[in-house]
Amino acid sequence: MATEAKKLKITLVKSTISCLDDQIATVRALGLRKIRQSVVRDDSPAIRGMVFKVRHLVDVEEIG
């Protein structure tokens, strides 16, 4: 039985208005454009670091 990698469901819950430029770029790099939009990404240290940087703007759920 193959083990599947964990996934993270990341949802943008606050606007990026008046955020720092690097935080806006991080949200865009995660693939989020609109409030309440969700994306599913593989759980990796790079994605975790991006989420940590904008943790006040997003909600994160572990899937799998």
Compact overview of the structure:
With 64 residues, the chain is of the alpha+beta class.
Query: Remind me, CATH topology?
Result: Ribosomal Protein L30, Chain: A
How would you characterize the largest beta sheet? 3 strands, antiparallel
Q: Determine the structural class based on helices, strands and strand pairing.
A: alpha+beta
Number of domains: 1
Across the major sheet, the strand order is 2-1-3
Question: Portion of residues in helices?
Answer: 25-40%
Protein model, in words:
- There is one protein chain.
- The chain is α+β, with helices and mostly antiparallel strands and 64 residues long.
- Helix content is 28%, strand content 27%.
- It contains 2 helices and 3 strands.
- Strands 2-1-3 form a 3-stranded antiparallel β-sheet, with no helix packed on it.
